[in-house]
Specification:
- This protein has 424 residues and is of the alpha+beta class.
- The chain contains twelve helices and 17 strands.
- It has helices at residues 4-9, 11-20, 27-63, 69-101, 139-146, 151-158, 168-187, 201-206, 232-237, 294-312, 358-363, 386-396; strands spanning 121-126, 149-150, 164-165, 191-193, 198-200, 225-227, 242-245, 251-260, 279-289, 316-320, 332-340, 345-354, 365-368, 373-375, 377-385, 404-405, 419-420.
- Strands 1-10-11-12-15-9-8-4 form an eight-stranded mixed beta sheet. A three-stranded mixed beta sheet has the order 7-13-14. A two-stranded antiparallel ribbon has the order 2-3.
- Helix 3 (27-63) packs antiparallel against helix 4 (69-101).
- It is elongated and about 100 Å long.
- It starts with a helix and ends with a strand.
Length: 424
RNA sequence: GGAGAGGUGGCCGAGUGGUUGAAGGCGGCGGCCUCGAAAGCCGUUGUAUCGCUUGCGGUACCGGGGGUUCGAAUCCCCCCCUCUCCGCCA
């Protein structure tokens, strides 16, 4: 949620931001709504003040054993008016909040301005894509031949967009997860969190998923519970409604969770294989920082995620998303794209965002430094998407005979296994 | 799931309709005392928002949301959470 003050004092900044994001929100209408609400609230407060004054008078009269009937009768009228006003204020309140909640975050000044992914900026590349003496297969073919990915069974059990991992495949997923968690906790100083995978609607709202993205998440029938679309949701809410000690910042958390997404609107995209699933595993990095340090911490967080790919020996590139391609709550986003030989292109494997105070305002997370509490900045990034990392490993480490070499850093997690071979 | 007990300020804990933003204690901060410290004593101590603006004033906040009333921490209704016992389960 953006600061309502921006609306009143700096509407041009907001207007430019919305244009750059190709968002068509009627700011004037919201501004008018805000003005009406404020006037109503002022009127109501005046009435309340009168009520409070009269209340004291009534007390005095009663103490003096005098008749207060007249004063009470007079206040009856005021009370009725106040109730009416109260109802109208409440109405305007919800209207205004609903409007504010659908305004996206203001892009950071360093973000390239452009309508779509075409304007994204390449930041850096690491290693060249590997060369193969044979036509590399994709993970679907490899996985099925090796007997580690079973899409048919998954479809039978749960329908489209699910995968069953078997044997060394399941083991590899677990190895990757543990490897990532170990690097981030032991070397990068993150605290490991294992949060609930079901969260309340209020938590979804705090993280900016609701009301805008209700279609993209799964919810539990008959209850106000949602399956987490990302660990970002429970992690953001970890400190909801708290005033943090500024000395403790930055707070750094890492969490493994499965992620559940309906992938509405992506029909026909990546329908084969496990690239785009209703359920996938992710190790998420998350930071609460002060306003001054969030940019540096954002860069550091992105580099923390890159380390995983470097250790795995996977070629990747980092891009900065343009204003038109960025997510709703982000002020700036780096995407890390890994090379997938089976797709013959780079594909997103991590998205690292600085949400500035956007989520913090919604979730009411502040810190105290001088006197006034101020909103913290929140950062999140995948470190990494585990399923896609598994795809990257088997496609990049495939051999001519269809077997897959296990990257050295994963072998301790695979009981020393050096190669995944077909199960005869 | 059944029965009961609770949720008050940073913490503990009073308070069952009227100067209660809330006694008292702890903690924190400032001061006195001291060579210094402890103890003791005195004072002070929340958040949000609006308006004039070094300060002051208005309003709201006693788990959350409704309601009754001139007036609600206090009465009524709904919800959430915690604790104890029973049941069930991993």
């Amino acid at each position: 949620m953006i600061d309502a003050k921006l609306l009143r004092d700096n509407i041009d900044v907001l207007r430019t931001a919305l244009e750059n994001r190709r968002s068509s929100i009627n700011l004037e209408a919201i501004l008018a709504l805000d003005a009406s609400r404020r006037q109503l609230l002022y009127d109501l407060e005046q009435l309340r003040a009168e009520q409070n004054r009269a209340s004291e008078e009534i007390v005095k009269l009663k103490r003096a054993k005098q008749d207060a009937a007249e004063a009470i009768a007079a206040m009856k009228k005021v009370s009725d008016t106040a109730k009416e006003l109260e109802e109208r204020v409440r109405d305007f309140d919800t209207q205004l909040r609903d409007q504010l909640l659908i305004i996206p975050n203001i892009p950071h000044e360093s973000v390239p301005v452009g309508p779509d992914a075409g304007s994204n900026r390449l930041e850096r590349k690491w290693e060249e894509p590997p060369h193969f003496d044979f036509a590399p297969r994709d993970h679907i073919e490899l996985g099925e031949k090796l007997g580690i990915l079973d899409f048919e069974s998954a479809a039978k059990i749960s329908g489209a967009r699910f995968t069953v991992l078997k044997g060394a495949g399941a083991r590899l997923e677990r190895a990757l997860t543990n490897f990532m968690l170990d690097v981030h906790t032991r070397e990068h100083g993150y605290t490991e969190i294992l949060p609930p995978f079901l969260v309340l609607g209020s938590s979804m709202e705090g993280a900016g998923q609701l009301p805008k993205f209700a279609d993209e998440a799964f919810s539990v029938k008959g209850r106000d519970l949602w399956l987490v679309p990302t660990a970002e949701v429970p992690l953001t809410n970890l400190h909801r409604d708290e005033i943090l000690d500024a000395e403790l910042l930055p707070l750094k958390y890492v969490a493994y969770t499965p992620c559940f997404r309906s992938e509405a609107g992506s029909y026909g995209k990546d329908t084969r294989g496990m690239l785009r699933q209703h359920q996938f595993d992710k190790v998420e990095l998350y930071k609460f920082t002060t306003a001054e340090t969030s940019c540096d911490e954002h860069d550091a967080l992105t580099q923390n995620a890159e380390v995983i790919l470097q250790r795995l020996g996977l070629a990747y590139q980092v891009i900065t998303l343009s204003t038109g391609d960025m997510g709703f709550g982000a002020a700036k986003t780096y995407d890390i794209e890994v090379w997938l030989p089976g797709q013959d292109c780079y594909r997103e494997i991590s998205s690292c965002s600085n949400c500035t105070d956007f989520q913090a305002r919604r979730a009411n997370i502040r810190c105290r430094r001088e006197k006034k509490p101020e909103f913290v900045h929140t950062l999140n990034g995948s470190g990494l998407a585990v399923g896609r990392t598994l795809i990257a490993v088997i496609e990049n480490y495939q051999q001519a005979d269809g077997s897959v070499i296990v990257p050295e850093v994963l072998r301790p997690y695979m009981n020393g296994m050096e190669r995944i071979e077909p199960v005869a």
